[in-house]
Amino acid sequence: MASSKKRKKTGQPKKQTQKRRPKLLRTWVGVALLWGAIGGVVLSLYHYLYLNRFADSSYLLSLLAVDFVFSLIAAFVLSFALGKVLFGTPKKRKKRALWSHNLVVALLMAIAVYGFNYWNINRQFNVILIVSDATRADHLSCYGYRLETTPNIDQFAREGIRFENPVAQGSHTIVATPAILASVYPTIHGLTHYRAVLSDSITLISELLKKAGYQTFGIVTNPHLTEANGFGQGFDYYSSDKGWLHTGAEVVNLKFLQVWRRYSGEKFFAFLFYIDPHVPYVPPRAYLLKFHADPDVVITNWHPDSLAALGEGYKLDIIARYDGEVNYFDTEFGNLMRELKRGGIYDRSLIIYTSDHGEGFWDHGLVGHGNSLYEELLRVPLIMRFPVLVKFPKFQLGGKVLTQPVRQIDIVPTILDFLGIEGEGLIFGTSLMPLIWGKKETLEELEYVISEEILQQPELHDIRSIRSGPWKYIITRDFENNEYRRELYNLSQDPAETVNLFEQKTSLAMELQGRLFSELSHLERHKTRPKIHVPDRETLERLKALGYIK
Ligand SMILES: [Zn+2]
Q1: pLDDT for 460-493, tens place per residue?
Q2: Where are the domains of the chain?
Q3: How far is the CA of 11 from the centre of ligand 1 (A)?
Q4: What is the pTM of this model?
Q5: Where are the alpha helices (DSSP H) in 121-269?
Q6: CATH number of 126-278+344-545
Q7: Which residue in 35, 93, 117, 517 is a FRET match for 164, CA 20 to 30 A apart?
Q8: How confident is the model over 305-324, as pLDDT tens digits?
Q9: What is the distance in A from the centroid of ligand 1 to the CA of 220?
Q10: Quick one: how far is CA 259 from the chain centroid?
Q11: Within a 10 A sphere around the Cβ of 270, how many other Cβ atoms?
């Protein structure tokens, strides 16, 4: 009796299931497809909203297509499996089962999309701004130097955006560094000697990022950039190491890592200013030998005039020492990158590498820096490595070389634009993001590039230059004879600036001069007044050791 009842009971639904299965299957397939489509749209929209502030490049479209297909498949599988497993055999309550299914799928999908995006998208970017002092671009192998001085920076450049023709706004640390940190021209900040203090009305990138919730650290090893000079503005931690005569790059790395570990856990901005390869060119002995410098030659006075007085006979040895310094810095640069990778912050950081100015080796009869506006002093390296924006599919900006001339004053606006932070105060540069994304081929703002060397100490200098297309015009005030020297060069035909075309092309030179003067008179209106401080004995000793004062 029991067995026949059982048979009866099991027999009936079996028949019904057979009839229902194709219909039910169709229902679940239909519902799953709908959810797949919704999932695809939601995920694509999420990524679009996140990424569109960075650009509207072709990358974005392909990324969204991948997003859509990926989540269509994922949501379809999820919805179908759930439908089959949980509600595969609904009886009378079929409608209710469909509603329950939809509710569960919606909840799971919301959790999945949120979780996936949380894991997939890097929202908290750190910013690490690395400056090596006195580094002329053409002594880096990635900028075409004949010797392999910078294997680590070369590797970094391959992963990032390398600017082939960056132009420094000045040729001396205190003149050019505010251009990097605050997007201002030398005329605006007016710092012309080691006692000058940056005005409070100039806003450093550290101040803007601190306001935006960043921890800010500055570690500098040039005595022109102390807190007393006003460069500590906006930094939670600022170290200017005035106690040491020469602080090697490994010390800056060590200090940074200590500070980073102490503050670790929050997004941060780090400004790391390495004195290498500035004079004195005294890297560890192995680096001198590697570039065939004579380690037994002892140079006691590193002031540019004293070096120039040694004569060109010392040129090769001096350059070999300099290359050793560049190579030593590169090794430490590589060590820092390895530490950043180990700490899990390499891919989560916008890392920018540049220099304040270059260095001369008798190129125009001059040695050192701060004494001209020729290319050996103005062409600095500039490489930006962007963080990984999306982990899957991996999406990052990099591997490009951009040849348009760009300026130091463009670094701050680019950082702000990338992070989506509003700038404030005096900002004279423009964001390079449109060039980086390939949205624009050229930027109107970069049509004329101005540089200035206005120094009162160690020597009086008043030099200005303007660059437009291949043309570069330089006007130098000769204080001794109370007159002006004018030079015009065609950089594409004569990159070493050996033939002054001023006499042949006077009207073009005058046109450039007119433009230069009108830009400068516009800048004059925003000029700030630096205060004066009296440096202590230690700082004076360091300035002397670095050849800044006699
Ligand atoms: Zn410098």
Answers
A1: 899 999 999 999 999 999 988 999 999 999 999 9
A2: 16-120, 126-278+344-545
A3: 91
A4: 0.90
A5: 151-159, 173-182, 186-189, 205-211, 249-263
A6: 3.40.720.10
A7: 517
A8: 888 888 888 899 999 999 99
A9: 11
A10: 21
A11: 25
